[in-house]
Each structure stands twice: as structure tokens, then as C-alpha cells.
């Protein structure tokens, strides 16, 4: 407590602003104005995050004055503004970005939901998203669904509760109900799908050449002399698996090769699935001489198993797969792939979403197809 320098009373003292960095006080009994040095904020820091109210109390002014000073209002004189800034720095004041954003009706944050961050494809997509978002002044909140529909739904709810301006999503292999997306579409939230999309939803979509890429891979195997080509497909109800399997079938039909059901295996992308498929094919009376997989990691697992079994690649069995990774080029023999360019997928998805956020009222959903590239390596190069 501060006592009057004249009468010594404490209860009659009130704050009255400040002059040249010193707290100005007024004694109502003596009608005396006097100044003292303000308390050092750094010696009395509160354990909670500093607010505008804390600054106002320290200086003996109103919170609205502090707010206007921090926002460089012309209504506040320069001395007051400088003193507010000084105390704000000493109290380690940080603006509440969420509160400011909500006041403006936007957060400059986009949400991203992916099935598996450990897969290099999705890591590449996220890198592309982050680059575009950062350059546009947006923050990114990333959630992993871990291939669980329930987790995906909870992720979407959490992101919406955080008031993201828009959502980028690639669905899990379990997802066959999209009510959690429809709910927010009806509210006008900009949403863009990538990779694993849903055709029943009116959203912008970024996809790869699933059909074309698979067709190119299988056609390449055929031109290398393969006539019995097995396919390790993904889950039957996953849209990209269906498209890639259709590309496989179309290539066989083009070259009048039979589509044999015992050469088609649906997997969940897990290692045990790919190895079970391989072992089943090797037990057939007539083994396949080529293998196509919709996920490159499964092909790498098969290559390692075939090498252990002493089966020559590509002489006895050639392999080609959808998707690329550094490991695919480093293993021996290196794997023939169809590169999806995940970084580009992420860039395009983020660009479209931000455009949707900015031009929400006039935005018309469309589908962007990212062109891929057939990369021929040792695993299939017979000729």
C-alpha cells in the first residue's frame, strides 16, 4: 500500500494515471497529486497468462485504453502508448490470437485429417500443404485417423471445435459413412478431399491417375513378356483400390489376357496380407510371372520374401507397384513404380482449399487430377 507523502494516510489514495514512466497518485484528503515509481512487473508475475486487464491494473488505467494503445489507436497519446507497450513486454503479454480471430470471424487455420502420417505418401502430402499454407499466412492443424472411422470422426469434430477456416481430408479404409462431413458442408465449411475421396459429396477433390497409372504399370509388365499377372489390391470398398484394380483389368483385356480370380487378392495394406497373397500365388500349379500391387510397400515386402526364397526377379517374377518412395529406388532390385507426386497433391489441395475459403460464395467444386509418371526399374526390366 502507498501512503500520502503529506498526511501519511493510505485509505484516501487513488491512482490517477502516470507521468513520464511514474505512477501518478491523488490524495482525496489533502487534494495532493504526487508520483511514485510503478512496481516492477517482473518481480510479481502471475502464474497465469497475462491479459489486458493485468496491464490495466498495473498502470491504473482502463482495459479499453490498454487495448486501444496496443492496437495503435490514434485516440491514445504517444506517452501512454509507449508506457503500455513497456509494461506489456515486462509482463510477457501475448495476444490471444484465437479471440482476435473469432472477433474477425476467421482463424487463418486449416485442418488436415490423414489416415497414417508414417506413410511417406501422406508425409509428402502434408509437406506440400504446409508450404502453400505458410506462404498464404495460414496455420495448419494435423490429425491422424490411424485408419479408424471413429477416430476420423472425432478428429473432424475437434478441428471444427477449434474453428478452423477449412478442412482437408483423406478418408480411412474403414470409412463408408460420411455424415460427419455432410454436417459441416451444410454449415458452409470449405472442405477439400484428396487421395481417398468420396464421390457422393459435393466437394473439391484432388486425386491421382489411379486408373491410368495402374493400366500403365500392368501394360508395362505385359510388354516385358508377362502373361499371368497377379494383383495385390486394397480393400474392396475403398474407391482408389477399385479404380486401380479396374486399370489392371483393363490392361489385361486390351491384350486379350484372362482375368483370373485366383490371381486377385484384396488386402488391408498390411505386411501379413501381402505375404499371404504371395505364398498363395506361389502354391498355384501355375505361378504368376508378374505381380502388380496398388501400394508400393507391399511390393517391397514381396521382393524381400522372393529373394529369401531364391526366386529370381524379374526373370521368374517381375513386379511393379503404385506409388514411389526413396526405399523403392534403393532396394535390390529397385522397384518399378508409378509416381503419384504426393508433394504436388498437397500443394494443389491446399491451394484449392484456401481459394475456397476466400471465395466461398462463388466457389464451384471441381476435381483436379495430378498426373503421375511411370518409372521403370530393375524389378520389371526383363528386356
TrEMBL record:
Q: What protein is this chain from?
A: LacI family transcriptional regulator
Q: Which domain of life is it from?
A: Bacteria
Instruction: Alphabetically list the UniProt keywords.
Output: DNA-binding, Transcription, Transcription regulation
**Residue ranges annotated for the HTH lacI-type domain, each copy included:** 50-104
**Species:** Emticicia aquatilis
MF terms from GO for this chain are: DNA-binding transcription factor activity; transcription cis-regulatory region binding
Q: Which Pfam families match?
A: LacI, Peripla_BP_1
